[in-house]
Amino acid sequence: MSVATHDDAHAHDHHDHGPAKGFMRWVTTTNHKDIGTLYLITGLIMFFVGGAMALVIRAELFEPGLQYVDPHFFNQMTTLHALIMVFGAVMPAFAGLANWMIPMMIGAPDMALPRMNNWSFWLLPFSFVMLASTLFMDGGAAAAGWTLYPPLVLQTGNALPFTVFTVHMLGMSSIMAAINIIVTVFNMRAPGMTMMKLPLFVWTWVITAFLLIAVMPVFAGAVTMLLTDKFFGTSFFNAAGGGDPVLYQHLFWFFGHPEVYILILPSFGIISSIIPTFSRKPLFGYASMVYATSAIGFLSFIVWAHHQYTVGMPIAGELYFTYATMLIAVPTGVKVFNWLATMWKGAMTFETPMLFAIAFVVLFTMGGFTGLMMSISPADLQYHDTYFIVAHFHYVLVPGAVFALFAAAYYWLPKWTGHMYDERLGQLHFWLTTISVNICFFPQHFVGLAGMPRRIPDYAVQFAEFNAMSSVGAFVFGFSQLIFAYVIYKAIQGGEKATSEVWEGAEAHGLEWHLSSPPPYHSWTEAPPKEIISDLH
Amino acid sequence: MDNKELQKANARLVWRIVAIAVLMFGLGFAIAPYYDAVCSYFGISGRVNEASSEQTMQVDASREISVEFVSVVNGQMPLKFRAETSKLKVNPGQYYTVNYYAENTSDKKLVGRAVPSISPAWLSAFLKKAECFCFSEQEFEPHKERKMPVRFVIDPAVQADAKEMTLSYTFFDITEKSQTIKN
Q1: How many CA atoms lie within 13 A of A87 on its CB side?
Q2: Are A514 and A3 in contact (CB under 8 A)?
Q3: pTM for this model (two decimals)
Q4: How far apart are CA A301 and CA A205, in angstroms?
Q5: What residues of A are in contact with residue B22 (Cβ under 8 Å)?
Q6: B1, B5, B25: which to substitute to probe chain A, counting the most A Cβ within 10 Å?
């Protein structure tokens, strides 16, 4: 506590200028906390937009037959739901957490490149408006799935170039955010904050940033080839001109597989921060966590073709990609083991962030196991493009990435706003969400194994009961998120004052808990004392 | 580190990372020819585009492999495309000629390109073509039928368990493209 007092006094002495007033504060800001807030709010809004699209899908699938939307619009919904959830909700939310937390966690006054930071955020609203506008264009929005496979995607009408430019802009934004994070962590750490002292959230983000820099340009290149194939007569993916559509799949998944780890690695970091705090123990196996994350990052580059088993591949290729993919279970298993070992004999309490973190460990592991099933190429022939894969990636992304984001929001909300959130509502949100997410996605395993194909608006009547269940779960899940939005709103408005430590014993778990709640607009303008860094575990 | 030094260090790191990003963008495009090279090396994805000169091979009369001939027309191309026979039993090492026929059913001249595909893929390297209409663009006068021969041999080195294979051709309409080039 003495340190927090020291900091308060320090802020008072310097008469730090606070934020500018009015709307222009948000347009011109270069402050990492403001930009973090902007990212997080954008992520939340896009989460509701993408969620509304998911509910259109689930409403249509509530019963067999076509009820509400025509199949072409249904396909636009599946495509945009995925693009918006991946690029609009989860990635900006992680970028927001990185902006808010990394400087506070490493003892830096701000991000290394504040102006670029502003630009990388403000590209997002424009790209999402452009993407949403494609819904109203001649021929509708892209409807070939988020993978944008040719030749199907080349049938898109006027929306194709706009979709491609959206991807370019989102790519630029992510690359700039990634550059900023790497430079900040490499060059701006407080004295005494060595690489192997960094909180795991920072470590996982550094590795994520490297993945982004390596693969976003490849995706940008691949969609550029789509554009030139359609409008400028090139034949990258056109068999008539000597090209091959399978080349696109290789390019896409060379991006796509690291991309799914971009969506999950920061979650690992968040869970690795929360579980020790609420177990009141240091994280078990810190170094092995760092190495496991790096190993996962490396392996993500050499397993891409496991998404293409059914497309046709030499048998040696099938074997290689099967074994390489199964290998990923090893470092991931190390992580799950470490989280369990951290909880082992800990003095655990179950506030909302911890509940979400524990649900993450259980449900993400289930999603991981179905992934392992599909890594086996002969078995994958049955699962490919059925609801089984839909269940798999929703288990790793919803109770995986999204639960980690919920956990992070509840964990750091008192720090950001200075007010405790409503614990009763938080727990209600947790239970409704966790029950409904399983009602929604668990039955999809069964219909998938029985052969129900994905991305089709109609289905055989034998799948009716499980689909009805799934739709009910989806609607309960969707509307439960309004509680989450309300809890955030309420905490911003006021409530019980949070101490600087917020959670009992949290000071030992990170530098951010040594700042006041809310932290001063400019924090760590002087590096934190070395003693508190060496006391962290 | 003072402020100036820090800014210099930051700028250096930024340009290094930007260089990686630019390289990766280039790599995406560099993969296209590399992918072609790998595919033709293994003879997969229909990339056997060169005639192999006819040579005398040891005919293995003790083995018979059944080859199926498939003809496909892509999209709306107004072409009637068929093989003279759907199946042929062949001895490895012996040359055979099979004729494909294509008739242009429209009133306009058509230009097409046939893309071959051999299944199973791991046998494709053993099917060698001395002559094939797939090596070049094909022109079709309106309402005329043309005979197009394929002369091929199966390398006697093919593995013993090879019993069946399929040779498929898909015709793509490239009339518009070849006209834009000619004009």
Answers
A1: 30
A2: yes
A3: 0.90
A4: 17
A5: 217
A6: B25
